[in-house]
């Protein structure tokens, strides 16, 4: 990163330092012509620390690190991280295609600790377009070690990228639980922080039938005495369903499918998003097997474990009983029956949602193009569609992990992070810094293939079905 006069525009300012923007920063690092800086309000990098349960694994292979699928020669690969720790041979003999979640977190922290241009304890407050200078203004607050405001700052940039990630989702009927005093009610994101307290509760209910709910239920089950488990696991899905993990099913997480999805009409995209839940909200088959094995082991000497697993159930309302217990009002979606469940602690494994960009983008609202649902429109290069008065200057705003409505199920997937980052950098620089593959799936997702968009750096290639263009974003 070159020394920077505060009034001199940077080439790129990144907002948020999660895996997506960390991937972009790592791939931007060797591009000497780019002057970049990234801001994050947290004091350091961490990746869902409350869910780093012992033994839990990342659901994508280790090749889906920050950079490998765009540049396997990068110094920021997971394999190079292992090399710096003298762990290549142990990893080799472990034969683990899917790494431990805690290990992925440690790898990302290694990148964040060694990569220049990352500024933690910096909270971005606003992004504005300055029409007089034809430049973006980014206002930020520098925080002290206690998270209090220490100084205000402003930087100018030709391009900005938002990678602010997701936030815990609490469905409306469950919101009263969060403010219940004296009773442990935690979102899965904070599970490990409150685990010791949860284990002292007489009866524990886990709400949510995805991977996090399964991992937490398994961890609680393994930690409770046989015959006195007193656990209840409920979820809205009709079954505790395995994640779609067939090899052709996984091709929904390829750039080919992303291009196909982006080219579909908006109503079709919205309908498809709701049908893809088992591609990313299902449960790893190994986790389901481990739960069954643990339950079966407890029947070896007769009797059944004191654990109830009930899918197809939604929470209608929730409330407090006295000051020590919680009552969940349940409805079975298939039986159309209702009941009440009294419990001493609740873990809300209800997932995460994309953060609302409107607050941080309020300064760009007059220039922002929205779809029929008032969501920001995003082009195939992950750029927000802004007024031509902005884009004609060559300045753009990009988003990461906030474009599921335009790019499909793969938007938050770690396996597409490197490709997306490379696409953004190629587009931003107008150069093929990272050659990207022209085809990534055996599946052809439409009657006619959706070719990569042609740019000034494209090369024509032949195929059996016609002529396509190589993606040179």
From TrEMBL:
<keyword id="KW-0274">FAD</keyword>
<keyword id="KW-0560">Oxidoreductase</keyword>
<keyword id="KW-0503">Monooxygenase</keyword>
<keyword id="KW-0285">Flavoprotein</keyword>
<comment type="pathway">
    <text>Siderophore biosynthesis.</text>
</comment>
<dbReference type="InterPro" id="IPR036188">
    <property type="entry name" value="FAD/NAD-bd_sf"/>
</dbReference>
<dbReference type="InterPro" id="IPR025700">
    <property type="entry name" value="Lys/Orn_oxygenase"/>
</dbReference>
<comment type="similarity">
    <text>Belongs to the lysine N(6)-hydroxylase/L-ornithine N(5)-oxygenase family.</text>
</comment>
<protein>
    <recommendedName>
        <fullName>L-lysine N6-monooxygenase MbtG</fullName>
        <ecNumber>1.14.13.59</ecNumber>
    </recommendedName>
</protein>
<dbReference type="Pfam" id="PF13434">
    <property type="entry name" value="Lys_Orn_oxgnase"/>
</dbReference>
<keyword id="KW-0521">NADP</keyword>
């Amino acid at each position: 990163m070159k020394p920077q006069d505060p009034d001199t525009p940077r080439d790129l300012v990144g907002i948020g330092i999660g895996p997506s923007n960390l991937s972009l920063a790592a791939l931007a690092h060797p591009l000497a012509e780019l002057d970049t800086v990234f801001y994050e309000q947290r004091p350091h990098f961490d990746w869902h620390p409350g869910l780093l349960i012992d033994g839990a694994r990342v659901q994508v292979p280790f090749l889906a690190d920050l950079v490998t699928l765009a540049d396997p020669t990068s110094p920021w690969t997971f394999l190079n991280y292992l090399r710096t720790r003298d762990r290549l041979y142990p990893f080799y003999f472990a034969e683990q295609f899917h790494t431990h979640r805690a290990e992925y977190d440690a790898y990302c922290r290694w990148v964040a600790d060694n990569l220049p241009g990352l500024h933690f304890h910096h909270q971005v407050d606003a992004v504005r377009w300055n029409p007089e200078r034809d430049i973006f203004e980014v206002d930020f607050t520098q925080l002290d070690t206690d998270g209090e405001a220490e100084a205000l700052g402003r930087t100018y940039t030709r391009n900005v990228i938002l990678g602010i990630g997701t936030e815990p989702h609490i469905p409306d009927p469950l919101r009263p639980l969060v403010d219940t005093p004296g009773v442990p009610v935690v979102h899965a994101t904070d599970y490990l922080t409150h685990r010791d307290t949860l284990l002292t509760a007489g009866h524990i209910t886990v709400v949510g039938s995805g991977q996090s709910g399964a991992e937490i239920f398994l961890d609680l089950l393994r930690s409770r005495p046989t015959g006195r488990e007193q656990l209840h696991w409920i979820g809205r899905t009709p079954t505790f369903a395995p994640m779609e993990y067939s090899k052709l099913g996984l091709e929904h997480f390829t750039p080919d499918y992303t291009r196909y999805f982006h080219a579909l009409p908006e109503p079709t995209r919205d309908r498809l998003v709701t049908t893809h839940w088992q591609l990313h909200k299902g449960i790893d088959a190994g986790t389901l097997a481990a739960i069954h094995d643990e339950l079966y082991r407890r029947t070896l000497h007769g009797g059944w474990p004191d654990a109830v697993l009930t899918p197809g159930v939604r929470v209608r309302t929730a409330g407090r009983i006295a000051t020590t217990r919680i009552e969940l009002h349940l409805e079975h979606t298939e039986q159309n029956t209702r009941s009440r469940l009294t419990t001493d602690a609740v873990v809300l494994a209800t997932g995460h949602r994309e953060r609302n960009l409107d607050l941080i983008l309020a300064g760009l609202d007059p220039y922002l193009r929205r779809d029929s649902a008032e969501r920001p429109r995003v082009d195939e290069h992950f750029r927000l569609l802004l007024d031509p008065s902005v884009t004609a200057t060559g300045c753009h705003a990009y988003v990461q992990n906030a474009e599921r409505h335009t790019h499909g199920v793969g938007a938050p997937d770690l396996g597409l992070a490197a490709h997306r980052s490379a696409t953004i950098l190629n587009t931003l620089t107008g150069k093929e810094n990272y050659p990207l593959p022209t085809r990534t799936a055996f599946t052809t997702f439409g009657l006619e293939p959706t070719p990569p968009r042609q740019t000034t750096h494209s090369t024509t290639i032949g195929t059996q079905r016609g002529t396509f263009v190589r993606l040179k974003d």
